[in-house]
Amino acid sequence: MESKVNVIGMGVISAIGNSVDQSITSFESHTSGISPLTLFDTVHRYLPVGEVRYSNAQLSDMLGMEKKFNRSTLLGIYAARQAWRELNISKKWRTGIVSGTTVGGMDITEDLFRKYKTQDPTIDYHDIRDHECGSVTERIADDLGIRNTVATINTACSSSVNSIIYASRLIKHGLLDVAIAGGVDALTKFTLNGFNSLMILDKQPCRPFDETRNGLNLGEGAGFLILVSEKVLKEESLNPLCQIAGYANTNDAFHQTASSPDGRGSYLSMEQALKISRLATSEIDYINLHGTGTRNNDSSEGIAVQRLFKDTIPPSSSTKSFTGHTLGASGGMEAVFSVLSIMQGCVFPNLRFTSRMTELKFDPVVEFKRGLNINHVMSNSFGFGGSCSSIIFSKT
Q1: How far, in Å, are 52, 218, 392 from residue 221 at the CA level?
Q2: Contact criterion met (CB below 8 Å) for 297 and 330
Q3: CB burial readout 113-150, b (16+ within 10 A) else e
Q4: Residue 277 near residue 392, CB atoms below 8 Å
Q5: What local confidence, expressed as pLDDT, does residue 2 receive?
Q6: What integer is the mean pLDDT of 65-78?
Q7: In the chain, how long is the greatest CA-to-CA distance?
Q8: Is 298 helix (H, G, I), strand (E, B) or coil?
Q9: Strand partners, 344
Q10: Does the pLDDT at position 176 exceed 90?
Q11: Average pLDDT over the chain, rounded to whole?
Q12: With contact defined as beta carbons under 8 Å apart, do 291 and 298 qualify?
């Protein structure tokens, strides 16, 4: 018999805060984390981003770690420790980690390449050991003492939702008892230059789902959930924050970096997540939209939402208007925000919205609202290559 998957802990770090409490305060005060780039020198310094306000050296000191780890590892460990710190359970449980990322140790590699080009005598080729994405997950696992299952997922911007989905499936089918799942990505020159070459970066703070939207703002951060089976919940006398009710991953199969105009992949992922959760569209109380702020993404997702929910579209918004688009970390961070929505009975504002998109019949939420009865939240994450994922969190 499949076990229900319960969320019992969470941790997050982003441009709007270094904790769950700081994040909710930023949402409530409409305080965005989007600001000019300061982390590294680049000809694109004029582009606004969602930075975490600490250098690698500062993060290392805060974590009590040597100053040798890449930024993704530092951000990942910071959020993972938050989620993990109150987990006081028996060590007998089969415990794993599944983490999504797209950047890996790119910031260290960029520095190494600069030294190589200038024939810097301080170059240390051992630094390349943490370049690949899986090393980030392994470092987090080592820090938390996890040995049973260590897995990394890279499906572009749906990476960390797919990590939560995979971890949930491992628990449901009795292969794990406890899992930490989510994702992390850091800002790098590689991603900034890459997205700039696609001409989808806004030179102003982004305006998701606005008719005047002109692109996304990149961001960085990490978000993780602690998931446990029903057996662990009962034997350890734990209080769940919520449950994972349904999820789905589909593929748009349209274009390497663009969504289909009719949002077919988005529609299917939401529809199948609802089917697995056995919920009706009318039972979803809030949608955390993927909402990057690009012309293509918001139109595709909005059309899919309208097609599925018809005239009963629930309150919806994109929290990327606060954090920027954190790529492989976005689904993990927004999973934390979705759990927060249920716990605190709130929905988050879609900043800088002024005018409805011509092809849509609904507007996103523009004010922070608390005191609501939020039982079921859907969160969307759609990535390059057509990877579309939706997940539903439900009150227990």
Answers
A1: 7, 11, 22
A2: no
A3: eebeeeeeeeeeeebeebbbbbbbbbbbbebbebebbb
A4: yes
A5: 59
A6: 95
A7: 65
A8: helix
A9: none
A10: yes
A11: 95
A12: yes
What percent of the chain has a predicted confidence (pLDDT) above 70? Answer: 99
Complete edge-to-edge strand list for the sheet that includes strand 221-228: 149-153, 95-100, 178-185, 221-228, 5-13, 242-251, 387-394, 376-382, 286-288, 316-317
Which residues lie closer than 8 Å to 197 by C-beta, 6 or more apart? none
Tokens of 143: 């820090």
Distance of alpha carbon 129 from alpha carbon 182, whole angstroms: 23
pLDDT at 71 over 60: yes
pTM, full prediction: 0.96
Domains and CATH numbers, the chain: 5-235 (3.40.47.10), 244-394 (3.40.47.10)
Min mean pLDDT across 111-120, 130-139, 299-308, 356-365 is at: 111-120
pLDDT at 1 over 60: no
State both tokens at 269: 């992922």
H/E stretch holding 392: strand 387-394
Measured CA to CA, the distance from residue 304 to residue 186 in angstroms comes to 30
What is d(CA 138, CA 359) in angstroms, rounded to the nearest whole number?
A: 45
Give every CB contact of residue 222 below 8 A, 6+ residues apart in sequence: 11, 12, 13, 14, 75, 76, 78, 79, 80, 182, 183, 184, 185, 329, 332, 333
